[in-house]
Design a protein that fits this description.
It contains five helices and four strands. The protein is mainly α. It has a two-stranded antiparallel ribbon with strand order 1-2. Strands 3-4 form a two-stranded antiparallel ribbon. The longest helix is centred in the N-terminal third of the chain and has 30 residues. 3% of the residues are buried.
Length: 197
């Protein structure tokens, strides 16, 4: 009589564990999340496992050196460390931290330069019409966008003729009787009514 309940309990525990651990098995947890850039695939974590471990070790060492520098400064300020000892320790830790930072700089390329280059290449492909990563819009969506653009253009030209005014601050079109812009709140200049005398 106890065996069906035990089986059900094991099944529930196994399901709960699977539910909790499932996100840890995803591609981001393994460092393999892929990003599509410029028609090619690039791993989010480029490089082999050894360079990742080296980078992680250098980052840990950098944080340890920063902590040691702060502790030495605090001990010196509290009078626990003599000035000569503090200066020697500070010099040693600073040199070691600089060496670790240089190793980190040489280990990883400048990501901003890489991204800038990829963006420039994508813009060049778009200008030449050779971009294969963009997907054409469905015709119904394209027509709806074109109709909305045409409606907005028509509305802006009609509003100029119907006595609307343009906000000098944000450029939005407001009604003639408005005293403040409904978009940005700027005070609108009121046109004085023209008298026909």
């Amino acid at each position: 009589m106890i065996f069906p309940f035990l089986g059900l309990a094991l099944l529930l525990v196994g399901g709960a564990l699977a539910f909790v651990l499932w996100p840890l098995q995803g591609p981001c947890a393994r460092g393999l999340s892929e990003v599509s850039m410029g028609g090619r695939r690039a791993d989010a974590w480029e490089g082999d496992a050894e360079s990742l471990l080296t980078r992680a070790a250098l980052l840990v060492r950098r944080e340890a050196l920063y902590t040691a520098l702060r502790d030495a400064e605090f001990d010196h300020a509290m009078g626990k460390l003599a000035t000569e000892d503090y200066q020697a320790l500070h010099r040693q830790l600073t040199l070691e931290a600089a060496q670790v930072l240089r190793q980190l700089d040489h280990l990883t390329p400048n990501p901003e330069a890489v991204y800038d280059q990829e963006i420039e290449q994508a813009v060049l492909r778009l200008r030449e019409g050779k971009d294969t990563t963009t997907f054409p819009l469905p015709s119904a969506l394209r027509e709806a966008v074109e109709a909305e653009i045409a409606r907005l253009i028509k509305h802006s030209t009609v509003s100029d003729k119907t006595g609307a005014q343009t906000c000098p601050h944000c450029g939005q079109i407001c009604q003639l009787e408005d005293r403040f812009c409904i978009y940005c709140g700027a005070k609108l200049e009121q046109e004085s009514p023209r008298s026909t005398s």
